[in-house]
Known about the structure:
heterodimer; A: mainly alpha; two-stranded antiparallel sheet; 10 helices; about 70% helix; globular; B: alpha+beta; 2 domains; 4 helices; elongated
Amino acid sequence: MNMEELEERFSAKKFWKELAKGIILTNPVFVLVLGLCPTLAVTTSVNNALGMGAGVIFVLLGSNFIISIIRKITPGMVRIPVFIVVIASFVTILSLVFEAYLPPLYESLGIYLPLIVVNCIILGRAEVFASKNPIIYSIADGLGAGLGFTIALIIISFLREVLGTGSLVIFGKQLFSIPVISTSPLSIFIMPPGAFIIIALLMALFRLIGVLKNE
Amino acid sequence: MARKETGNSFNKILQNKFYPIIFLALIVFIAVVLLMYVNNITRVKILEQREAKIISQLKNIFPDMDKYELKENIYIILKNGKTIGYSFIAKGKGYGGEINTLVGINKDFSIKEITVLSNSETPGLGTRVTLSSFTDQFKGLKSADVVLSKDGGKVDAVTGATISSRAVTDSVKKELDKNIEIIKKNNY
């Protein structure tokens, strides 16, 4: 694709549309129900959610960008291995950088950082969008899906951390603490069942918004 | 005209039956080169971070240490070239996975202090084995006393987290006995 084509086809409206759809209309967690494994596992604290979200946004932007660039020369037969190699490269870069410069976050994300490779949100966006659309919209799509995922993680982890521990700690600083809850925390929300309950309630809420919008 | 021709020959390449193989190999090659480059940049920093982490953890237990030597998984803690204690990592099987505990011992093989480095225990319950209210109980204990009090020792388990407490206590005792043997045998 040359520059003339790029300018000719670019429309700001479409760019924002592709970006916005990932946040609410096709939110990866609440509407598409993708990537639930990391969602359940890392949402025990807002801090982890922010780290995971930033990581996924980086990988999605990178992989959508590269896959869109090579979409016309990628043979259909080997497209999935190509996507996986591209995604795995970005994830490895991310995990090396996190280990070198953000060791506490690297440790708390643990196994879920390398597992971004198999996060179906990323492969999904590559297959459904980036491999068929121009670069600029693929970036918008990646950013939208990444932001949607991050926002979902933040909402879930905020509820879980506040209900389960009674306080909110971000980057080692305690932002606030609710006396009633922190003396006898509702530990179930920090544990896996709490994640399912919170995610189910939020999913119902998103469905409701979707139904109301369609009417 | 010229443009059309290049377009045609490009299509020919795309249709070649070996093209997918070559393309995938090329992508993998580029990825490998890129990762080698990133690895080269971050490697030194990562090693520094790991080293700094070990030293800071050892310093928590032995504040006046200046150096350490690693032999057979035992950290020999030195001050002005003289041994002031030993340290090692004990791995125990907890409720949610492995619990790693750093154990510091004095030259007379009594425990100086223990720190839980990593665990996957239930937050708010099993994770309380990391608190000083639990770990402080180990201070000064000899190997024979490193047993939960309900099993006849001197360590009180965290309420509601017996499995986690036992994992820490048992792994510390096991490693302690093993490493005292090694230290005595090799005269470290």
